[in-house]
């Protein structure tokens, strides 16, 4: 068994599989996962706020930026994570596999961290394509895995801190003559310098069986450069669905800027929501309820009220966003008509689904940019964009910008 493990480790010997490379990739992964965790937590709390929470409504493009960062950084993490696993691959074949209780716990923690990170990035990528080949609920699972990753990552950094500190800077990897130092068997210990990649590979090989090994053609710089290039290419070819400057390079993203009815993509059409007949029913009305009772407005009634325009992005959790011009009645004006200005509002749609009922916090309800939109980009609201009326508010996820409105209930 030991011979088999040694053969695998022998084949994996490479100067690129060096603690310095692992530390560089590890700190990039740590920063990336922290950015994704922070932006993801913000998105989650917007959708499920705690009772005491309020959120900024300015700048109006805030959610567009945070969710765009979440998806772009998450995409960039895929090559980084694969490169990090490649770098530390020989450690998976040490013999004996587990050395004591501490070794078992450390390996179990690493297994949890790696498994959670791989699943998190995979299902996040599939979510951008709205492909869900599973039965569990995506958002809740994605959120739970994020906490598992951050917790495991914090403990892993604490355990590996001596190694991280020793190999943190580039000069820590070199001796006084600028030669690369070879790590010994042991955490963070330095061996004697080897001036060439061939010498480093040979040193690793001699610790395994004392025999020669062919020179590696993969250097540390090549691995880091290729990983950085892969991440950059993935971001550049997918971020065009939210970043106009990258739109010409948008080769792999599932959506494109200004593509769709009235120049906006559509996640869920009226046909998919099964509301085509209800949305086009001439008897449709919007019910607005508040402290002074309730009022019912037809579309003609809404058009007769003072109309206002807002230039706001529609930004979705899948990572796409587009700026648009909306026109309609301010929610604050409608709430004032029922004596509930500035109150929290329950927003109801006549389309069934997970977001058929959402909460509109008072900070959004009183914002003058928040509208019951009747027009989009100078035209009557398209059926797939929520005709006869939809909600639009600044700095909110697209799933909370309710289409096919039925009621606004202040409380």
UniProtKB/TrEMBL annotation:
Give the domain of life.
Bacteria
- InterPro entries for the chain: Di-haem_cyt_TM, OxRdtase_Mopterin-bd_dom, OxRdtase_Mopterin-bd_sf
Keyword RNA-binding assigned: no
The record's Pfam families line, in alphabetical order, gives: Oxidored_molyb (PF00174)
Q: Which UniProt keywords apply?
A: Membrane, Transmembrane, Transmembrane helix
Q: Which residues form the Oxidoreductase molybdopterin-binding domain?
A: 281-409
Segments spanning the bilayer are: 21-45, 65-87, 108-132, 144-165
UniProt key word Transmembrane helix: yes
PANTHER family this protein is in? BLL0505 PROTEIN, PROTEIN-METHIONINE-SULFOXIDE REDUCTASE
Write down what this protein is called.
Answer: Molybdopterin-dependent oxidoreductase
Source organism of this protein record: Amnibacterium endophyticum
